[in-house]
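re: ur question from yesterday

yeah so i grabbed the chain u mentioned. its 362 aa long if i counted rite. heres the sequnce exactly as i have it in my notes:
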Amino acid sequence: MFTRLAPAEGWSPGPLVRTRPEFTTRLPDEVRFPIDVVYTWVDGSDPQWQRRRAAVTEGEGAGYHEQAANAARYANRDELRYSLRSLHLYAPWVRHIYIVTDRQVPDWLALDHPGITVVDHQDIFDDPTVLPTFNSHAIETRLHHIKGLAEHFLYFNDDVFLGSPVTPQDFFLANGVTKFFPSRALIPLAPADQLDVPVSAAGKNNRRLLEGRFGATVTQKMKHTPHAVRTSVLAEIEREFPDPIRATMANRVRSTSDISLPSSLHHYYAFLTGRAVPSQLRYDYFDLARPTIPGRLARLLRSRHCQAFCLNDTVSSEHDLAGQLALLGPFLDAYFPVPSPLERAVTRQEPRQPCPSPSPSR
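ran it thru and got these structure tokens back, copy pasting raw so excuse formatting
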């Protein structure tokens, strides 16, 4: 094996080649366990999904904060297609991919590919009365209940992309310890209230649980990267804090009582129990509502300096979304032009030629 980018287990194992015995030596820092990927995905333009959401929000509200209710949270800019392309291009060592959805499947997805499984919310929620849910925090409390999921996996939102090659060692130590990537952004110290954006409220609730269990006060949010997670740690947290986990699972829209399990609480809990370490990843965050975004995306496309990046938006209006689509489409096509094996083959039809005009008679 000459590179960590192509281990034996992956989407497309490479051919056997002649080599010397010295090159087959297994080093102690090699990650030998399988690593899966889990996505949560929604197509907010789906009329049936919109009707289900309207039925819930009319009775329970759209969410306590404007960021929880904004249409930008559910906009589908085809990010999943390109995030999967980035995964195939830069992390071919991934064993299997799970896409968690609410009765939705992308029409371009190759469902017959052995490397992917679509998981419906009904498959992982043990209480059908809390469905349908439109709260990503609630969905995240059930990811470790996916049947067949590896002990070690990466949790992606569909607006997260790999921007250059990554190895398993970027996310895990060879002994199974996970890595996490703290942000410079801080969790406000005041108790959670209605003025908090959802990520801050969840961070405060995470902190309260950790203070009660370990006597440690956490202050930093996490970067919006792929999150390295262990199913056994998630299950242990569920046993340790059953009431907050069940309460979050039952919140069908965002609530100030939510916790954020795989994207924050897992990392701190695993760190405080000796199963995670803070680390660094070349990463950048792009708020699509900012006027400087076109120039920043152009620089990213030229340099490709990030191992991971996030294209996020929680505040734009529907009018803004149309402009963003016009910007992101060419950017993503240029960055990830090659379809992944997870996309269905599309037969391109040749344009019909017009009938030639008759020659003028003489």
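noticed a couple things. The chain is about 30% helix and 15% strand. also The domain at 29-281 is CATH 3.90.550 (Spore Coat Polysaccharide Biosynthesis Protein SpsA; Chain A).
anyway ttyl
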